[in-house]
């Protein structure tokens, strides 16, 4: 099936057996059987329409909410590396943002346009598309309350306009229209003072730097906060700060982060995720749910 891609004509980059570790914020993981970086949304739609529907495919943005196992990814990884990153002011209250645009860039663009309400995006280390896929949020804000509509593309290359009513949206969860990838979204914001919006972003980023281990590879928060509580508090109370496996460690600065010094494997990190889940559940009878997606093959399945 994968040989079908060898003769496929696209305008973007299409390569075989591409390492993915440098494309994720954890800096671990094996290669993609195939990697496709579309030139634009039309190129993406053409590509999806040209490959078999049964071919495994996944979308990768900045790789900040994913743990790719050491055996890599079967099928094709569609990487929005520097593409679909447009930002456009549509009218006094609305902006259009491409799915490949980094959330911090989106926050700064909106603030610079004198639009408020999206400052929290500066604290999300992923893309707009990734934020849409999981209803990402920070500092009490979430992306979907801002969304007027979004455009997606399905496995046949057909594009759709979706509204929030098409999905079941909850805390760190978006269900509905499965198998579609986000291409862009239009957000409705409030006009305001650009200087004040930029100052709020800087204040939020300073707070983030004080509390989170930003200097080491991580995925951001590993676990969702349980109802009425905080995952980091439970992990710390279970005495798990500093727990290690190989070069991977439960952060001593923020217990809901797993970091490493550059020498960890995906298997080390996955072991820590499972161990933290087991020990917190044993201590508090609460099963922590990962925010991060763990995907791909283990090395023994190569």
Overview of this protein structure:
This protein has 302 residues and is α+β, with helices and mostly antiparallel strands. The chain folds into three domains: 78 residues, Uridine Diphospho-n-acetylenolpyruvylglucosamine Reductase, domain 2; 125 residues, Uridine Diphospho-n-acetylenolpyruvylglucosamine Reductase, domain 3 (2-Layer Sandwich), CATH 3.30.465; 71 residues, Alpha-Beta Complex (Uridine Diphospho-n-acetylenolpyruvylglucosamine Reductase, domain 1). Helices cover 24% and strands 27% of the residues. It contains six helices and 20 strands. Strands 6-7-15-11-12 form a five-stranded antiparallel beta sheet. A four-stranded mixed beta sheet has the order 1-2-5-3, with no helix packed on it. The protein has a three-stranded antiparallel beta sheet with strand order 17-18-19. A hairpin with a 7-residue loop joins strand 18 and strand 19. Helix 2 runs antiparallel to helix 4. The radius of gyration is 19 Å and the shape is globular. The mean pLDDT is 95.
Q: Give the overall pLDDT as a whole number.
A: 95
Q: Specify the helix fraction band.
A: 10-25%
Compute the number of structural domains.
3
Q: Gyration radius, to the nearest Å?
A: 19 Å
Number of strands: 20
Task: Kindly provide the name of the CATH class of the largest domain.
Answer: Alpha Beta
N-to-C SSE string, H for helix and E for strand: EEHEEEEEHEHEEEEEEEEHHEEEHE
Strand arrangement in the largest pleated sheet: 6-7-15-11-12
């Amino acid at each position: 099936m994968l040989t079908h891609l060898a003769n496929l004509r696209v305008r973007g980059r299409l390569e075989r057996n591409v390492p993915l570790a440098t494309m994720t914020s954890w800096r671990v993981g094996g290669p993609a059987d195939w990697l496709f970086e579309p030139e634009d949304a039309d190129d993406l739609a053409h590509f999806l329409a040209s490959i078999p529907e049964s071919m495994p495919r996944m979308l990768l943005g900045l790789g900040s909410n994913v743990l790719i196992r050491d055996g890599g990814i079967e099928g094709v990884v569609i990487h929005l590396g520097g593409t679909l990153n447009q930002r456009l002011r549509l009218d006094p209250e609305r902006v259009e943002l491409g799915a490949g645009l980094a959330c911090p860039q989106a926050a700064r663009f909106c603030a610079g346009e004198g639009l408020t309400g999206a400052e929290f995006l500066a604290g999300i280390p992923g893309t707009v598309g990734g934020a849409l896929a999981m209803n990402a949020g920070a500092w009490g804000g979430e992306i979907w309350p801002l969304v007027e509509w979004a455009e997606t593309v399905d496995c046949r290359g057909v594009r759709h306009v979706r509204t929030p009513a098409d999905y079941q949206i909850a805390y760190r969860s978006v269900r509905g229209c499965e198998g579609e990838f986000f291409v862009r979204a239009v957000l409705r914001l409030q006009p305001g003072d650009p200087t004040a919006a930029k100052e709020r972003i800087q204040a939020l980023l300073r707070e983030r730097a004080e509390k989170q281990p930003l200097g080491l590879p991580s995925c951001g928060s590993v676990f969702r906060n349980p109802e009425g509580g905080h995952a980091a508090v439970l992990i710390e109370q279970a005495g798990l700060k500093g727990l290690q496996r190989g070069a991977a460690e439960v952060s001593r600065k923020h217990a809901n982060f797993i970091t490493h010094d550059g020498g960890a494997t995906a298997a080390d990190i996955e072991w820590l995720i499972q161990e933290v889940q087991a020990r917190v559940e044993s201590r508090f009878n609460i099963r922590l749910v990962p925010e991060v997606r763990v995907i791909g093959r283990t090395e023994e399945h190569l």
